Amino acid sequence: MSKVDVLLGLQWGDEGKGKIVDVLTPNYDVIARFQGGPNAGHTLEFNGIKHVLHIIPSGIFHEDKLNVIGNGVLIEPNIFEKEVQALLEKNVDATKNLYISKKAHLILPSHRMLDAANEKAKGNNKIGSTLKGIGPAYTDKIARSGLRVGDIMEFDFKEKYELLKVQHLQTAHTLNFDVAAFRIDNMTLDEYEKRWLASLETLKKFHLINSEYFINHCLDKGQKVLAEGAQGSMLDIDFGSYPFVTSSSTITAGVCSGLGVAPSRIGRVMGISKAYCTRVGAGPFPTELFDETGRVLCEQGHEYGATTGRPRRCGWIDIPALRYACMLNGVTHLFVTKPDVMNNFDEIKMCTSYEINGKETDEIPFEFNEVEITPVLRSYEGWKQELTGITAYKDLPQNLLNYLDAMEKVTGVPVLAVSISPDRKDVLFK
């Protein structure tokens, strides 16, 4: 009996999930997104082309593979339409091999307004939202007032839409938010709404399915399914650095609820970690570097958000956080990305534990946001050479192999492959 393999990020996002999914796709029949929405930005580079996907699964460039947007995903129809159009410009017709769950929830224009209103109301305590409406849309989902993809086919959709919009406007009013001054893509809320409603016609062109039955039937037929995560494990709503987290379950457990598969149908869990750490927005980051090394990591790694364009905070790899993510996800195999960013470093450091109030620990504390954490660092000698042109894992510089071996040892998870450039061809399997 086939099982769902899982590919997800083990840090604060931006680990390189889209690229690795693209590399693994030839080994699978179905690629399925199980959570998140347009706050994700999965960058793929191949044949001199760079493409960023936000909602559509990263297997879409393989026309012989099926792609599924699961019930746990949020869809913003206007952003989705732009994504579909961008693919058409690269001669990829997503209507042929993309299936969308009827149970996936919709992000309304007024959700995006509420996102901005809530963030503004937090003042200095803002969480660094992408302002794509994710939090308010998931809030409505949990409050049982959200609208789903299947609703757009119903005769009373517009009535339900208007009712929810009125509730959102009332909430914005209580937050003293200036709705008239609010803009989305330089459009007023009413202007954007017209474009949003028109984009529903694009959504209707796709295969709208009961994805839980679809996925399980694929497994029953022996087809291989890969679940693609968005964001990172340390942004999980339950186990991340709350409240500086996303609004969904980003870990393996989210696959079950986001696709409708039983825990017993989960197979391999492949986790992705950069060779260092990055984070976008606010929240704790024990290994963050504020010096020249941090600046070099940002510049050499082109560490700017694929969705927001914001510069990412950079620091040494955080092993307590990585071990924690491996534990939560049941990671069976590890992908390591972007060691090439540190090619010119004389010395590379790894945080092996935390010092909190004079005591050493390797656990993530409940008070992660409040306590002062000093990272306990171990140094490794840099490899001081370019990795371009290396085609076999065993031919990597010995000092890099030593670093990767150390990651295996401290996490207890074997490294399956390492990515040494943005291009899909430069993923070296061990």
Q: Overall 3D geometry? A: globular
What topology, given as strand order, has the largest sheet? Answer: 9-7-5-2-10-1-11-15-19-20
**Number of separate strands:** 20
Helix content: 25-40%
| Terminal Cα span | 27 Å
Segments where pLDDT lies below 50 for 5+ residues? none
Radius of gyration: 21 Å
Structural class: alpha/beta
Mean pLDDT: 93
Q: What is the oligomeric state here?
A: single chain
Provide a count of the helices: 11
The largest β sheet comes out as:
10 strands, mixed
Q: What is the beta-strand fraction? A: 15-25%
Any overview of this molecule?
α2 crosses α6, α3 crosses α4 and α3 packs parallel to α5. β16 and β17 form a beta hairpin. By secondary structure, this protein is α/β, with parallel strands linked by helices.
What's the gist of this structure?
This protein has 430 residues and is of the alpha/beta class. The chain has helices at residues 17-24, 77-88, 109-122, 134-142, 157-174, 189-204, 211-220, 253-259, 292-300, 319-329, 398-411, and strands at 4-9, 30-33, 42-46, 49-53, 66-69, 74-75, 98-101, 105-106, 207-209, 225-228, 266-274, 277-279, 313-315, 317-318, 333-337, 347-356, 359-361, 374-381, 415-419, 427-429. The two termini are 27 Å apart.
Write the layout of secondary structure elements.
Blueprint lengths: L3 E6 L7 H8 L5 E4 L8 E5 L2 E5 L12 E4 L4 E2 L1 H12 L9 E4 L3 E2 L2 H14 L11 H9 L14 H18 L14 H16 L2 E3 L1 H10 L4 E4 L24 H7 L6 E9 L2 E3 L12 H9 L12 E3 L1 E2 H11 L3 E5 L9 E10 L2 E3 L12 E8 L16 H14 L3 E5 L7 E3 L1
Parallel strand pairs: 1-10, 1-11, 2-5, 2-10, 5-7, 6-8, 7-9, 11-15, 14-16, 15-19
Antiparallel strand pairs: 3-4, 12-13, 16-17, 16-18, 19-20
Helix pairs in contact: 2-6, 3-4, 3-5
